[in-house]
Design a protein that fits this description.
The complex is a heterodimer of chains A (557) and B (432). Chain A is mainly alpha-helical and 557 residues long. Chain A has 22 helices and 7 strands. In chain B, helix 3 packs parallel to helix 12. Chain B is globular and about 65 Å long. Classes of the chains: A mainly alpha (557), B alpha/beta (432).
Chain lengths: 557, 432
């Protein structure tokens, strides 16, 4: 929108502002007003350096913002950007943040320097002198809406023009696609000649080719082959459905594009499935140890996950402003806290109920309710906000059709690491050996000198600790609240049973495949039905093969 | 001790600690106000705030001298997010030892539907503070939250004025989103939106795997027409939904989301930086500019002793409902249910947005409708507002099965489901 047109100038370079008037301002677009605003600012920028304006003039400029009409505000903002006022950038930035306001019963204008509390420190907007504090009762902050926000961002960007930055130019070039017209085509072509960066050249070439195709030049279609940009696809769809002479050719190119997109979409679905599966695996893998290996039906498993998530939150509270470090520290932290609770539960309840699965089930269900209400009482029933570090926000854009969201990718990798560590632990350490020995034949293991009670305690603690790790990971993708665990307990049992009780590999394969199946079904039948179908599928599978995907070897029952 | 009694006892002892005034009030010369909000279980996240708010309002009223010379006494129960427990405890409130004069309570439609037969049978009064799907009018329930025409329809009108042509209707799979989306679909089609420009999707409660749905929406919105998402996604599922939106790089300028169930309280669990510009439609926002609102916020902050405490739309609904009830009792000179039922219709009290709200004959109220855009501090900034109040419509005009129905609980008619074409009362005549 607005930045598009701003940046066109940047691309044109010396093609100059003389041409500006010729630029198409499509009246069909609802955003044409802000576009014009930016154009006018462009003219204004040509005027010489800024100077201080009189306080009366500054007052008048700000006064114009004090209206309820967003169109009028847009004009006022544009007038500010075009003025000579030295304060204008700061004004616009404060306006964008909702921190520029007016005294309720007076004529002064303020900038709120920190709007986090209920009493805000404020400064005079014209002199920038300290003006004490204000609150919502005394300062009326000017409001903006989406359209105005986009325009302000454009204005501020044009005020701090930064030529030559490759990322900016690339961004501008991307916005060109579909925006080239008869007036600007020459300038864009000149820009292409002056451009060195291959990535930017590719974008500009696409933009030009799309324009030429729209003008009916069939040769330009070759450039668009396999292009994944949605604007290219939309334009080609229109052309293919028209009776233009190149319609048939366009359709061929379009088919190629759709085909390529379909493949990337399959890739994306696979990623979605694996990431959904990794969440299942993480939630279930602790259970695979306590339920699968020890045979304890632990209904409080979900709450141990929740404790891990709350630990993450608490560590973040202790380290404000460092969500990344806090998250890394939460990995051992969540493990230890949940593990400690697990050992406590094992020592105080479960060991007395050995061999009585029904009572264990009821007792641990009770524990889960107690833990939930405990968290509600201690931390309040409201969800807690766990911040994501920058490196877990946003997505990794492979191309226009395929991008991997970083938090999901992080969880997927974390899941694989946890799995590998756990597998190595069971396979190569003494504890793992003892756990396997106790599971296979308790009496024999004890007669060989293995302290079965201690192994039980550590195994349960390990399973609980891994649940805590799942909580740390879940804090990045879902709510941290008292009900966090409830939503995962059924799925966890499902995965463990489906994968084969007592088998870590089974849990991995089961979790991942359930995730993928679910995500493949979801677009077809909706989220609710997808879950039902998966559940029925697992039930039928268990009927046919009660031992699950991977049957335990040997004589364990 | 029965479990209910035990819970009540626990709750009451909590109240007694919270406020010294309460201990002074004695059994006989008090008017009892039932508060039926879940304090444990899934709904505690939303409802426990409303319980605190009611305690605050009652305490304030008692400081002002009570009502009709009597003190108000809160009776708090905890239905523990269990719909059938709501019905049981409502009956207990109305018939048990306490015999409350009015109940303020419920959040979900399911719990309201469970309580409805009880309050009708025992002739109680229930003030229900949450926006809901409409298509209901009970003689004993007063709906102070928004009906669809006080929230959904104006929001869609606003988006249409912003040039939106394609609509993704996303909701949680239960009665409120399904009915609201049915009304919206009918409304949009009536205004010339084609079938292929409407996408409807439902997800389970607490859903968190939004990836493929958000990517579908992104795809749906990339076909060259301005697209918006109308979200009736409930509660917990919102945080992962918005996180996924921002991670997939969908900003409010690409595909704006307007939500009907996301308020200040829900946002307190999210980093709103990437969500700036997404919208919500309500009848009240904490950022509303009026002295009544600032006073209310100050009192609330003081009562909760929490500088960061937020207020939201259902809280305003209870504020209005409570004041309407007070006014109606004063007018009737008694807290007797039948008298109050008659006197409350037409009662007008100030709301928190600077205007005033009136109780309509259909037991819904008049309120302004506002669209707010999310700010980076977790608040909303009002970008659009109806020029006046909108009266709640119990029966939607956009559904074929209810377009001829109205509700009027005034004396001669006393009917909640009157067919204006045949002039017959479809659920039988009223009590008298």
């Amino acid at each position: 929108m607005t930045p598009t047109h701003t940046t066109i100038f940047r691309l044109r370079g010396e093609a100059g502002s003389r041409r500006v008037t010729g630029l198409k301002i499509a009246p069909r677009h609802w955003y044409c007003l802000p576009v014009m605003a930016v154009l006018l600012v462009w003219f204004a920028l040509a005027s010489p350096a800024q100077a201080d304006v009189s306080p009366q003039r500054a007052q008048a400029l700000l006064q114009a913002l004090d209206t309820d009409d967003f169109d009028a505000k847009a004009e006022a903002a544009q007038a500010i950007a075009a003025s000579d006022a030295a304060q204008k950038t700061r004004w616009l930035e404060a306006f964008l943040d909702g921190r520029l306001g007016r005294e309720r019963d007076g004529e002064r204008f303020y900038i709120i320097t920190d709007d986090s509390g209920r009493e805000w420190p404020i400064i005079d907007a014209i002199t920038f002198e300290d003006a004490g504090t204000g609150s919502r009762r005394s300062v009326d902050a000017f409001r903006i809406n989406n359209t105005l926000r986009t325009q302000l961002q454009g204005l501020i960007a044009s005020l701090s023009l930064d030529e030559g930055d490759e990322a900016t130019r690339l961004d501008a070039a991307k916005r060109l696609i579909g925006e080239v017209d008869a007036q600007s085509v020459d300038a864009v072509a000149t820009q292409l000649d002056n451009e060195d960066s291959p990535a930017i050249r590719a974008e500009i070439e696409t933009a030009l080719a799309l324009y030429r195709v729209e003008q009916g030049e069939g040769e330009a279609l070759a450039t668009l082959e396999g292009n994944l940009d949605t604007r290219v696809r939309n334009s080609l769809t229109t052309i293919a459905n028209s009776d233009a002479p190149i319609a048939a050719d366009a359709e061929k190119v379009l088919a190629g594009i759709e085909n390529k997109r379909a493949w990337y979409e399959r890739g994306q679905t696979l990623f979605f499935g694996l990431s959904a599966g990794s969440v299942l695996v993480l939630a279930a893998i602790g259970l695979a140890i306590t339920f699968g290996v020890m045979g304890v039906i632990n209904m409080a498993h979900g709450e141990l996950i929740m404790l891990g998530a709350y630990t993450t939150w608490m560590i973040q509270q202790l380290l404000p402003g460092q969500p990344g470090l806090a998250l890394l520290l939460a990995i051992p932290g969540g493990f230890l806290v949940a593990g400690a609770f697990g050992i406590l539960i094992e020592r105080s309840v479960i060991r007395f109920l050995k061999g009585r699965p029904l009572e264990t089930l009821l007792a641990t269900f009770g524990i889960s309710l107690i833990l939930q209400q405990l968290v509600r009482t201690v931390f309040s029933p409201l969800n807690r906000r766990v911040n994501s570090p920058d490196w877990l926000q946003g997505a990794w854009h492979l191309n226009e059709a395929l991008s991997l969201t970083l938090n999901r990718l992080g969880v997927l990798i974390f899941c694989l690491v946890v799995f590998a560590a756990l597998w190595a632990l069971m396979r190569y350490t003494r504890l793992g050996l003892e756990v396997r020995a106790v599971t296979q034949n308790r009496a024999m293991a004890r007669s060989m000198g293995v302290r079965a009670a201690r192994v039980d305690m550590l195994t349960f603690g390990l399973g609980a600790g891994v649940a805590g790790l799942a909580g740390v990971a879940l804090s990045q993708i879902t709510n941290v609240g008292p009900n966090l665990g409830q939503s995962y307990i059924v799925d966890s049992f499902l995965v463990v049973v489906f994968g084969g009780v007592g088998n870590l590999w089974g849990t991995l394969v089961a979790g991942m495949s359930l995730g993928v199946i679910n995500q493949v079904l979801q677009p077809w039948v909706g989220a609710v039905l997808a879950k039902v179908i998966v559940l029925i599928g697992v039930i039928l599978f268990i009927q046919k093969r009660p031992q699950g995907l991977f049957a335990p070897k040997g004589r364990t029952s | 001790m029965k479990p209910n009694k035990l819970i009540k006892w626990l709750a009451m002892s909590g109240v007694a600690i919270g406020s010294v005034n309460m201990a002074v009030a004695q059994e006989d010369d008090t008017i009892k106000v039932g508060i039926l909000h879940s304090l444990s279980g899934t709904m505690a996240i939303s409802e426990s705030t409303l319980k605190d708010e009611m305690l605050m309002l009652i305490e304030e009223q008692n400081e002002k001298g009570g009502l009709l010379g009597k003190k108000l006494e809160p009776v708090v129960m905890d239905p523990a997010s269990d719909w059938s427990l709501y019905a049981e405890q409502a009956r207990d409130m109305l018939t048990g030892d306490d015999k409350v004069d009015v109940i303020f309570g419920n959040w979900t439609s399911a719990s309201r539907k469970a309580v409805l037969p009880v309050v009708e049978e025992e002739n109680g009064l229930l003030f229900y503070p949450v926006q809901y799907e409409g298509e209901e009018s009970s003689e004993n329930i007063f709906y102070t939250g928004a009906a669809p025409n006080q929230q959904a329809i104006p929001a869609v009108d606003y988006l249409r004025s912003q040039g939106v042509e394609r609509w993704a209707l996303l909701g949680t799979d239960y009665v409120y989103p399904r009915t609201t989306n049915k009304i919206l679909e009918a409304y949009l089609k009536e205004h010339g939106v084609a079938d292929e420009d409407i996408m409807v999707n439902y997800t389970p409660f607490g859903f968190s795997n939004w990836q493929s749905i958000v990517s579908d929406v992104a795809d749906f919105g990339s076909q060259g027409k301005k697209t918006a998402v109308v979200s009736t996604i409930n509660g917990d599922a919102n945080v992962p939904f918005y996180t996924e939106l921002s991670n997939q790089g969908i900003s409010a300028s690409d595909i704006p989301v307007v939500a009907f169930s996301v308020g200040e309280q829900e946002l307190s669990g999210i980093d709103t930086g990437p969500l700036v510009g997404h919208m919500a439609a309500w009848n009240y926002f904490m950022s509303v500019d009026s002295d009544a609102n600032y006073d209310f916020i100050d009192n609330w902050v003081e009562f909760t002793d929490d500088e960061t405490a937020v207020t939201n739309d259902p809280m305003e609904a209870h504020y209005i409902g409570f004041n309407m009830w007070l006014e109606a009792v004063r007018e009737a000179g008694t807290a007797d249910v039948d008298a109050v039922k008659d006197s409350i219709i037409g009662v007008t009290v100030p709301n928190l947005s600077g205007g005033s709200s009136a109780m309509m004959p259909n037991h819904h109220i008049t309120k302004p409708v506002m669209i707010g855009e999310i700010q980076d501090d977790g608040q909303f900034s009002v970008v659009w507002e109806t020029s006046g109040n909108v009266a709640g419509d119990a029966w939607s005009d956009y559904l074929p099965e209810s377009q001829n129905l109205i509700s009027d609980w005034r004396a001669p008619l006393r009917c909640g489901k009157l067919n204006v074409e045949s002039m017959t009362c479809e659920d039988g005549a009223g009590d008298e």
